[in-house]
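Example record for the data management plan.
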Amino acid sequence: MIQLLGTIGLVAGAVAATAFVGLYHLSARWWRSEEGIHLMAFTGALAVVFDWQSVRALIVGMRQVSLGVEITRAAIYCTVAALLVWRLWLLYRLQIRPGMKRERGRQ
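Corresponding structural encoding:
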């Protein structure tokens, strides 16, 4: 059960990081500022790591390890996934939604 929770956190983090990279690329001129480049590079790196580990976990499967290792894995992946979902929400709330409102106002 703990292993499943860790895998769910891992996959959720992969989806959130990958979604952030795609949406940020489409909604911002991220390459024009150091902060934007950092956000894209760091989240992109997380997306690559999480995507790779998700594929590995789902296709290759996980070998049996101790309960402590599984609890730590679940805590790490779920925490990072929650932070990535928060970052994705911030992007939507602060950048995408206001842009959508401006576009509707122009029509």
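Summary line stored alongside the record: Helices lie at 2-27, 34-60, 67-106.
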